[in-house]
Design brief:
Two copies of one chain form a homodimer. With 411 residues, chain A is an alpha/beta fold. In chain A, strand 7, helix 10 and strand 8 form a beta-alpha-beta unit. The longest helix of chain A has 17 residues. Chain A starts with a helix and ends with a strand. Chains A and B meet through helix 1, strand 2, helix 10, helix 15 and strand 13 of A and helix 1, strand 2, helix 10, helix 15 and strand 13 of B. Strand 16 of chain A pairs parallel with strand 13 of chain B.
């Protein structure tokens, strides 16, 4: 692992100094290579799928693992999309003269070497590599054992594309080892790895955090809330709440708890419960909720902190905005929270006081996404507070250094 | 410590939601309080100084510890300066409509609770508290045992100022315990502390990094370089190099190693050596350096990585820009490095390729400083790559969250 790190550091310096055109050439070559390697990728993927079926993995995991022709097309298209983004590296901003006569500004620069640890979905191998390269970084990727052959087949395409563009093949290393000790070793390589991005379940992320000696960009639970304020427009409240819960059940930006102001509960809860029931959502409510929705199950303390990722919603009636914010700070995960209100003062307070990576007014939590935000692509959604919060795109894979220009200036 | 963290988290939410005017009122009250408490502060400081003398602490440390009337004035003036800065919290930037119809922007928000661990200089108690408060954060400070009475006297002024402005006194807690275990406990409070800022020697910073379960804004060694390129103007090269080494010897942005291109060594090294010798600087050179400066000592491998913080300079003659960059990446600490050249192409490469928190052209490394850069004040100089690099002011004590505005928008 030490050797992989050393090679990545050296390759990272070459990528950081490369012209944008050279990096883009590698990315377009990768997209073409993925298109051309369709049959090979599917054969490798078939081996992974067979092994996964033999091990009795569940249908959801098998689905995430599968590389269909459409998914290979989408993977290549994603890489082309990243190639077409403006190059973030080298941009100088805020360059100003200071009283001393020097000019001081900030230059956006690559982070260096990014470690990425992920599970099942093989498309991450291409997506994450493309983002890291575009930002001028080297990457060390460690995918899950269930996608071993698929990941290695994609890695072969990446190596070929790098070599074709005259960039070092070590700029993207897809580790062959899939045992967990490698994860800990990678996260501890403080001389050679600048940040670790774990993508996967809570178990993986906690394991990485525990072993990390380098900064971790965490993507933890999404316990997302929608708060329907007493000054909400009922139609908008229904639309936002139903969409936030049902548009997709298993994503981190799906609403898990609905908070409703007491003053409007009688007006919105009965029709909302009917709409959600129709969509097959099980409701678990507090006592006051059950006055309006008698067939809701009784919510327990455990429900308020739960990320169901399923057709279940906990519902709580609160006295008003203060109690809603208090609830979100006590039980939320700092991912995405929304208020529905027509009242500017309350919207203003919710935006300022709710301490989450995305805070919304009159919009579905499902919008918390790199593509929806216009980042072009995302490497994850950070619930960390430092460096990058919310959807992380190219900018999150860079940092700012100071640049100073003088003409022999001294202090 | 757990209880201190819990209280800080609660107080932090109040400070984050406070109006700028309320925070500023607390800061101006603190400045006035420091002015008024001059005699008390000096009496407390006298106890610390007496104890330090008894323990035989060295003169440099005694000097850093002392609170003279001028230093108390400067401390109050510093707090007023921070109060006068624009409030960073709540600023919304990049607010744009997206194709879906939502508006997406970013709001600058406080980090929450900042842990600050520092040694000797008691003025840090006031400076750091002021910066944290201004940015909307709560702070937990743990000063060194040698400054115990001084820090507690300043803490009393801070509590009074907070109470006078109607802010919770727990927004700034100066810990009474000074044993090292408290440092580890503070750095491990992941539920209540958002970032730890250690200010002090390498030992302290390594101890904190080892025990931290929260992100650390590191301020590590400054092994700073000046590279004199063959296209340097000799007068500017001399001015910059002499200033970078001699303007102050003990600061982290002082030059520790001089690199000189072989082609210009004969022209600049002899006069530069004379100037530095005059200033009392001991030179340790590579073999090629000693051809031009025969009385320089022989530099050993250990010299290239040394942060002398003293009147010693290591000097190396390199083949050119590539070897200079290579040397900086091998031995530098990523703090501040400068090139002296009139050649735009070489300046451009140095700026892009040298991976340090400040990279300079034709300016003394001594400019790497929050005040010189116009940050108004600084809480330290970060050699970390993530979140904040280089001098860290108010912006480094905040992060950006996404804000989304819709009108009942769904996905």
């Amino acid at each position: 692992m030490h050797e992989a790190g050393r090679r990545a550091r050296a390759a990272g310096r070459v990528v950081a100094a490369a012209e944008p055109g050279q990096k883009d050439a590698a990315l377009y070559a990768l997209a073409d290579g993925l298109d051309a390697a369709g049959a090979k990728l599917r054969a490798a993927n078939a081996r992974d799928l067979a092994a996964a079926r033999e091990r009795g993995l569940d249908a959801a995991l098998l689905d995430r693992l599968e590389l269909t022709p459409e998914r290979i097309d989408a993977m290549a298209a994603g890489v082309r999309q990243v190639a077409a983004l403006p190059d973030p590296a080298g941009e100088i901003s805020d360059l100003r003269y200071r009283p001393s006569g020097i000019q001081v500004g900030r230059m956006r620069v690559p982070l260096g070497v990014i470690g990425i640890i992920y599970e099942s979905r093989p498309n991450v191998t291409a997506d994450a590599s493309a983002l890291c390269l575009k930002a001028g970084n080297a990457a060390i990727l460690r995918g899950g054992s269930e996608a071993y052959h698929s990941n290695q087949a994609i890695a072969a395409c990446i190596r070929e594309a790098l070599a074709g563009a005259g960039l070092p093949q070590e700029a993207v290393q897809v580790l062959e080892t899939t045992d967990r000790a490698a994860v800990g070793a990678l996260a501890a390589l403080s001389d050679f790895v600048d940040v670790i991005v774990p993508r996967g379940g809570r178990g993986l992320i906690e394991y990485v955090s525990e072993h990390a000696r380098v900064p971790v960009l965490k993507h933890l639970d999404g316990v997302c809330h929608v708060y329907i304020d007493e000054h909400a427009h009922p139609d908008k409240a229904l639309a936002v709440a139903v969409n936030a819960k049902t548009q997709r059940l298993g994503t981190c930006n799906t609403m898990e708890t609905l908070l409703v102001s007491q003053a409007i509960a009688g007006r919105v809860l009965p029709p909302l419960a009917a709409r959600l029931r129709e969509a097959g959502v099980e409701l678990r409510g507090c006592e006051r909720t059950r006055e309006w929705v008698p067939d809701a199950a009784v919510a327990t303390e455990a429900d308020w902190g739960a990320e169901y990722l399923a057709a279940i919603l906990s519902v709580r009636v609160v006295a008003g905005l203060d109690e809603a914010i208090e609830h979100i700070h006590s039980y939320g995960s700092g991912h995405t929270d929304a208020i529905v209100t027509e009242d500017l003062g309350r919207a203003r307070r919710f935006l300022r006081e709710v301490d989450s990576s995305s805070v919304m007014v009159n919009a579905s939590t499902r919008f918390a996404d790199g593509f929806e935000y216009g980042l072009g692509a995302e490497i994850g959604i950070s619930t960390s507070k430092l460096h990058a919060r919310g959807p992380v795109g190219l900018e999150g894979l860079t940092s700012l250094k100071y640049v100073v220009f003088g003409d022999g200036h001294t202090r």
